[in-house]
């Protein structure tokens, strides 16, 4: 449920005109870098409490998919819907496999470190 909510939020954040630019104006950090760091933290917390690699991947995949689907980071000029969809899946899959896996490993290591 959290991952689906993040998907909708990420898509609307970048798709609605003026919302992302207002966030850039208000935030002193880079919005995309901060978002990726937040997703890494979310995957780490999830792995600490639940120990599920698939869920860590999903928590990263869906928001990045929503962001890429809205056109952020895709870099295509007037892409076809299939190219946009395929590229969004590729970008989100890459992010999920890297950030989700690192978050899972960190969360699992922290949990096992505290059990000692």
UniProtKB/TrEMBL annotation:
Residues 31-114 form the DUF8071 domain. The chain crosses the membrane at residues 31-49, 56-77, 89-110. Keywords: Membrane, Transmembrane, Transmembrane helix. InterPro entries: DUF8071. The keyword Transmembrane helix applies. This is DUF8071 domain-containing protein.
